[in-house]
Amino acid sequence: MNLTLRDQPFVLSTLLLAAIGWMIAFVGACMLKVLNGVWWIMLYELLIIAAQTMMTMSGSVEQYRVTMMTLLATSVPLLTIQIDYVIQSSRSNISRAPANTYAAGYIILIIMQYVWILIFGSDKSTFFGRWGQANRSIGKEEVIVEKDDRSKPIVPVILTEPCPPSASTDFIEKVQALHTYQANSEDPNELSFEKGEILEVADRKGNWWQARKSDGTIGIIPSNYFTVVDKENV
After folding, report:
1. What pLDDT, on the 0 to 100 scale, is given for residue 2?
2. Less packed terminus of the chain by CB within 10 Å, N or C?
3. What sections of the protein cross the membrane (predicted)?
4. Sheet with strand 226-228: strands edge to edge
């Protein structure tokens, strides 16, 4: 699943600002001629930016959330120490302009990392967590525009996946909700559910599963909000 700036403008804007901050810090380090002493920190920060960009563009942030939070937890203290050291040194034996450039780049970078911790470390249903979500539903609907050789009017064909649930479907597996979800009011097939709620599903193929709630309501649910319940615990 590939995302564009239109899908996640806020997240990708933070990535751009983080890259700018890193470049400013790199220029400052070159001006201070201290790159040999801090090259590994510069490389570490660049790898974090690259990894966050790849995960955002591939839509795999949820799968690697713990890994990214661990990397950021290490990065923030490193940047804080570097900023404090350069600011203190600029008052004595280091040129102020290069030192300020170096510190300014890292200040921009550390602010962006705090933003990532808030939006990617928070639950999707929270205020900050929603900022890390795409602005449109991806993988649920696809619009195909067809036009024949006789230049007939363009006819949009909407393909919805999965098909509307059927009451005759066999629901053979139980899953538990990891997060609370409010169904889209424009889609009557979606189900709302609370965190920890147990539902039954017919199969676990695709991004949307056909499911049945305990009250008998049948609909579709997003697969990444659920985990399979062990039969021994049922």
Report:
1. 47
2. C
3. 12-32, 38-57, 69-87, 99-120
4. 218-222, 208-212, 198-201, 173-177, 226-228
